[in-house]
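Each lists sequence, tokenised fold; shown next:
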Amino acid sequence: PGGAAAAPLPEEDCMKLNPSFVGIALSSLLAIDLWASKRLGVCAGEGSAWGSARPLMKVIEVSGHGIPWLLGTFYGLCQSDSSAAREVLLNLLFALLLDLVMVAVVKGLVKRPRPTHNKMDMFVTISVDKYSFPSGHATRAALVCRFVLRHLVLAVPLRVLVVLWALIVSISRVMLGRHNMTDVLFGLVLGYALYSVVEHCWLSPLNAPALFAFW
């Protein structure tokens, strides 16, 4: 009948019509992240605003890639004749492997696609590299930066250069269109935290004699 009261909406429909504040905030932050990341992707293609700087950005990309770091660390470990240097290099190798595993696990769990404006021309990728969150380059940059500053004796200008390198590698991920800003920010936090794990599990001749006997 026309005068009958309308039937109440099911509870799940009410929830959809009245989204929570947290849901609205997260959706808004995601929209801002996608919008800002696309605007900052100034080297995402040759026709982009800073397209001429794309080759330089790709060199920076290689400098933060896992393969050069793993090969360089392994080579240094094989060539080193100092027990102290071998200990530092062995732990750096452990840190790099831990970084690769953790980033792969998180990427596999989150499965966030890369930005739509990204060109899939990255240097040596693996299956999980089709995902964006977190940025492995940013994670590695933060991890290596903390490790180098803690375990290498460097002059102040060199220490500044190490920090600048980590920041430039991280920023280049957004400029190249490889990642959104939140991918990079989370990557930096994860890399910073992973170094603390490496310090806690530091390998030495006392707790890992078999490894040091091998080397």
Summary: The domain at 21-214 is CATH 1.20.144 (Vanadium-containing Chloroperoxidase; domain 1). The two ends are 87 Å apart (CA to CA).
